[in-house]
Specification:
The complex is a heterodimer of chains A (275) and B (345). Chain A is built from ten helices and two strands. With 275 residues, chain A is mostly helical. In chain A, 73% of the residues lie in helices and 1% in strands. In chain A, helix 2 runs antiparallel to helix 3, helix 2 runs parallel beside helix 5 and helix 3 packs antiparallel against helix 7. Helices cover 44% and strands 24% of the residues of chain B. The chains are: A mainly alpha (275), B alpha+beta (345).
Chain lengths: 275, 345
């Protein structure tokens, strides 16, 4: 009879296998495209500036590099890339194994079931962080020096952005790992949650926004929210952002609870595989 | 893990570290050149060595303080300052501002200052506001309110030019400008000083900013960490206040003055003065002691002020004179007029 691995060893084993699965799957192409798009935009912005054309203007006035960088962080990374990567990868952590009917093989291994979720989650976090954050840094180096922007003066903002995006990936990943372990069509549920529930709750006056990840995450962003559409304007009108400490505590709380629930779901749930 | 995965992760990590490293080097070079000691507001790099008065306020802490909540409940001071700054630059003091550094620059002595009359000229000062702003929105707000935009070294300045009537009333320094030094940093004040701050933001040197003024920096360091502070040369303070020459002659020669306050549930403040020598300090202590005695005598009939009066403490060593006191929200409530019923402000 094989010896049952300890929880930490089991997590490491699952992580080791999951990294390869995550990096070299078809989803990787999507992740690379998503991470490369802002770099391409930044390169175009930089190139047009180098030839003396201001690529981005507001009310006829050219926008300088640091302001543009803040806009990219808000509009591309925080509102799109982080939630989308969290949804696509987080929901897939468990549901892919169920859909491919390979979860049985994992369950037959002498490892605690909870370790499967934790190991895969750590692999997800490492992969997404190491794809998204270098992309942010590349955009920062390309955009910020435009029109008199200073890399040195804005470096603390970059560190804040990197921390917030990593935290966002961690929290969204944990939430969607739980959804992936509980809900039959987790990707649809995840997209509805991110682009439906969160968007509506954020603009409705009252306490609903407290039940979103975006509310706490957006309160940490050091850049001003771009008032690019009616939704943003309404959101800023009713905005009463929590303090940074309270936001971080809430986000860490959501992360731990969601991850624990995901692990617990896998341990207790009976998965009936379709023939 | 396969070698391919390992190389990918190592490559991505190195890319991330290299990018952060470049930013870090730029950050340390910028700080080293500006010479800002750790623990002090970074915005001091924009304060020139010629500044006579430097002030700092942690607006975020003040806005979130128990004292502010208490005062808002009781008093009719509801967001007066907030409204003013919103009118000027479209900025919400409560939501968007973290802290403010302000300074008054040296100004040629005018006839009014010599005669002891209050100086009516617009002071050559600058307000450096750190927070979270949306630059296009602020610029649009200023344009809508009659400001003109000017390009200065690649940065947009929004300028309000005074009318002839305003120039006659407030002197020639009435040109006020708003400029973004960084996306999270606004300079607001005399247009020449805003331009100078932009110069410093692009090529700051240690000799060009207030860090080269040893005496002021000693006071700034002593005040570091407090919620609000102001330090300055006494000459400048007395000139701004328009102290009558008779009063100035009674006060022993003071070099520097400072005030710092820690604000939370109440206010704990320390006012310090640096005299030329110990004899002047002893003389000044006697003046302050007499003043404190008069205040205690006059406020004896007001029980709400007793706690504040009990906390008054005169101290200091050598050529330094210090007066400290503490005020509770109850004391503030007693001092600030109560809000009238039906006053919606």
């Amino acid at each position: 009879m094989r010896r049952r691995l300890s929880f930490s060893n089991a997590v490491f084993r699952v992580f080791d296998v999951a990294v390869g699965q995550l990096l070299w799957s078809r989803r990787t192409v999507f992740m690379m495209l998503v991470a490369a798009a802002p770099i391409v935009i930044a390169a175009i912005f930089r190139a047009t500036d180098a030839v003396g054309i201001s690529a981005f203007r507001v009310n006829g006035q050219p926008v300088n590099g640091p302001v543009m960088f803040g806009g990219v962080i808000w509009l591309l990374y925080l509102r799109f890339i982080v939630p989308v990567l969290g949804t696509f990868y987080g929901t897939a952590l468990v549901s892919d194994e169920v859909e491919d009917r390979t979860i049985t093989y994992l369950f037959t291994r002498p490892i605690p079931r909870g370790a499967i979720v934790i190991g895969k989650y750590i692999a997800y976090l490492l992969c997404t962080v190491l794809v998204v954050l270098p992309s942010v840094v590349a955009v920062y180096l390309l955009i910020v020096p435009v029109a008199g922007g200073s890399l040195g003066a804005t470096f603390p903002l970059l560190l804040g952005d990197l921390g917030i995006l990593a935290l966002g990936l961690a929290v969204y990943g944990a939430v969607f790992a739980f959804i992936g372990a509980r809900v039959p069509r987790p990707l649809v549920a995840g997209l509805v949650l991110v682009f439906g529930w969160e968007q509506i709750a954020l603009i409705v006056p009252g306490y609903l926004r407290r039940f979103t990840v975006a509310y706490y995450l957006q309160s940490l962003v050091p850049h001003a929210m771009p008032q690019d559409d009616v939704v943003s304007v309404i959101q800023s009108l009713f905005s009463e952002p929590p303090s940074a400490a309270s936001s971080i505590l809430w986000l860490l709380g959501i992360l731990v609870v969601a991850l624990w629930l995901a692990a617990r779901s896998l341990e207790t749930r009976e998965y009936v595989l379709e023939q | 893990m396969t070698n391919k995965s390992r190389y990918f992760l190592i490559g991505a990590s190195l890319l991330l570290l290299a990018g952060v490293g470049v930013g870090m080097v730029a950050y340390y070079r910028a700080n080293q050149v500006a010479g800002i000691p750790p623990g002090l507001p970074d915005e001091l790099r924009y304060v020139p060595a010629t500044a006579e008065l430097v002030a700092y306020a942690d607006i975020h802490t003040v806005m979130n303080s128990e004292l502010r909540r208490e005062l808002e409940r009781a008093a009719a001071i509801h967001s007066k300052g907030k409204g003013d700054i919103h009118d000027v630059a479209g900025i919400d003091l409560e939501k968007q501002v973290n802290h403010i550094v302000a300074y008054l620059d040296a100004q040629p002595a005018s006839g009014a200052a010599q005669s002891g009359e209050p100086n009516r000229e617009v002071p050559r000062g600058l307000l450096i506001v750190q927070g979270t702003f949306e630059q296009p929105k602020v610029e649009e707000f200023i344009r809508e309110h009659g400001g003109t935009l000017e390009d200065y070294h690649g940065k947009q300045l929004s300028i309000h030019r005074p009318s002839e009537d305003e120039k006659q009333r407030h002197g020639p320094n009435g040109e006020v400008a708003v400029g973004f030094l960084q996306p999270n940093l606004i300079a607001l004040g005399n247009a020449d000083l805003v331009r100078h701050a932009i110069d410093l933001s692009t090529a700051a040197t240690a000799t060009a900013n207030v860090t080269s003024s040893a005496d002021l920096m000693t006071l700034v360091r002593a005040a570091a960490g407090e919620t609000a502070w102001v330090v300055g040369r006494f000459d400048a303070v007395s000139r701004r206040m328009g102290l009558p020459s008779a009063v100035r002659q009674q006060v022993p020669p003071l070099r520097l003055v400072s005030a710092k306050a820690h604000i939370n549930g109440g206010v704990r403040a320390v006012i310090s003065a640096e005299t030329a020598d110990q004899a002047a300090a002893d003389q000044f202590r006697d003046v302050v002691r007499g003043f404190v005695a008069i205040v205690r005598m006059q406020a004896g009939a007001k029980p709400e002020l007793q706690n504040a009066l009990k906390s008054l403490e005169l101290g200091g060593t050598g050529s330094t004179v210090q007066l400290s006191f503490a005020m509770t929200p109850e004391t503030f409530r007693a001092l600030v007029p109560q809000r009238e019923h039906g006053d919606s402000r």
